[in-house]
Amino acid sequence: MKAIDRQYRTGWVGWLRDLANAGGTGGLNWHVHAAQSLQRWMPTRELIAQFLAQVQPTSSNLVLIGCSAGWMLPTPWLARFKHIDVYDIDPLVPLLFGIRHARTLRAQGVTVTYHRSDAIAGLPTLLQRHPDACWWFDNVLGQLGFRLGDEDMAERQLRQLKSMLKGREWGSLHDVYSGPVDSLLALPVCEAVQWTRLDDLPQEQAQVNLNKLNMPHADAAQALLGKLNATGVWHDHATQEVFEKGTLTTMLPWAFKPRYWHWLQAAWVRP
Ligand SMILES: C[S@@+](CC[C@H](N)C(=O)[O-])C[C@H]1O[C@@H](n2cnc3c(N)ncnc32)[C@H](O)[C@@H]1O
Description:
Layout: E1 2-5, H1 11-20, H2 27-37, H3 42-53, E2 61-65, H4 75-78, E3 83-88, H5 93-107, E4 111-116, H6 123-129, E5 134-138, H7 144-148, H8 151-164, E6 170-180, E7 193-197, E8 207-210, E9 213-216, H9 217-227, E10 235-236, E11 249-257, E12 260-269
Parallel strand pairs: 1-4, 2-3, 2-5, 3-4, 5-6
Antiparallel strand pairs: 6-10, 6-12, 7-8, 7-11, 8-9, 11-12
The structure holds S-adenosylmethionine.
């Protein structure tokens, strides 16, 4: 059973803009790049599948935010739910998520409802609408800065998110850093590392536990970039404080383009 809810009214211009690039975070641009990159993304998709396989949500309802066509999502993990509410601003999502996942899900008795909606701005309302669901932000939070056009505002909003989600079961996969890798060196190895922020101090003073070793945040960030043979200027996606300090997170390398990589962060939070 497929239902589509169209409460996000942007007019034709907004609809076309979201169709094309969804505020620089998705749309047709994204789908073409994703479809052409699936093979290169395979190691990261496997790391995501391994991460999600360990997540055992207690709710049978999932609110899935910013999943696009679910290019990086494993269908078997989605199949553990009875009902999925998909929220994305991209008008192509019902069609493409339907082709990649929903047909199989339907055959397994999972129902999917699509909402074309700004789920970050509308989060307080959505939390009321779905009191019993668990939540997965699917590589959407790291693009908030692009969408708002203001990194400081994005950082503030992202820091507040965990308070809004208090008492809920939720997780997120999001960009932390992205940038060019050295084209003269061999391509980096796609290996996950564990990362825990140990305090709420500003980054220059903060301590992080990286693969069981405590160190200053700056050293941990350098170690991550070093693993990917980073070169040039890297972008910080302002997502450092999405999770509460002390949350064990998994950092996953992602060959977004052959020589332009990202570090993604994933964690699942229980109330
Ligand atoms: C980088 S893409 C995510 C890709 C997706 N996880 C996948 O595997 O294909 C970001 C997605 O988030 C959506 N998005 C961006 N901001 C959003 C918002 N405020 N509310 C809902 N969806 C949003 C975009 O339309 C896009 O589909």
